[in-house]
């Protein structure tokens, strides 16, 4: 009995270490890039280049994630400040949902995690772009005062556990502030990475094979399971692809649902949405990604497109 336990423990530990070591460099790089933009780029600069038409604004918000990268932990207070400075909701809301996925670090980590599978990378971006666009159009005629509970001051989440440490200046040195932001985010997000790796390892090590087979062989249950895990595990978008890739026995549609939904909706994001946005707005921000990802996964998976 003890020998079986030891074998299981060794297998569990090996899986956890493999996932963490593979994902940690991308998590660190993402923390540094996000901190650099937070410290050195002015939100006023972004506002000057906002286009006039609603479709262009939505596309601008989605594309901005590639130039202003941030993880999902820090994006909500950033968007609140952007809207407070006059950035339209049709830009800010799509950016909030898309930035944790379309930034270069996440794109590269997704490509590496799925061993150069361009299709998985493309599906992830599409599954995020669709609900981001829907919400951008939905709120396009709403002002900040209609969407936000109140203007969250810079650093408003710093004392409530936001990993990015927004607003925490270390003396007058921007360089020290850069490393402070990056170090804080990396340490905080590492917890969620390890948690996700442990959950994946527990699943692969201790769940009976017949249970795994029952989920992996059925599209809808596997999608629902992976979406639930995406919400509960709170794995950072810079590392979640490695967790998803470890569930290789699952249908690809369910893996896409995991890496698409998690950056848009998890437990920590729910708390931030309800704190920053008015209740009705927060419910739409949570509901639209959930339903869109579920519908797209089921339809595209059942038709064999994914």
Give the termini separation: 42 Å
Helix count, DSSP H or I runs of 4 or more residues: 15
Structural class, from secondary structure content?
A: mainly alpha
Q: Could you name the ranges where pLDDT drops below 50 across 5 or more consecutive residues?
A: 152-171
Residue share in helices? Answer: over 70%
How many distinct beta strands?
Answer: 0
Largest sheet: none
Shape: globular
Strand content: under 5%
Mean pLDDT: 83
Order of helices and strands: HHHHHHHHHHHHHHH
Q: What Rg is obtained from the alpha carbons, in whole angstroms?
A: 19 Å
Structure description:
This protein has 306 residues and is mostly helical. Helix content is 73%, strand content 0%. The protein has 15 helices and no strands. It has helices at residues 2-40, 43-48, 54-64, 72-84, 89-102, 104-113, 118-138, 144-147, 174-206, 209-216, 219-233, 240-245, 252-261, 267-276, 279-302. Helix 1 runs antiparallel to helix 6 (104-113), helix 13 (252-261) packs antiparallel against helix 15 and helix 14 (267-276) runs antiparallel to helix 15. The longest helix is centred in the N-terminal third of the chain and has 39 residues, at 2-40. It is globular. The N and C termini lie far apart (42 Å).
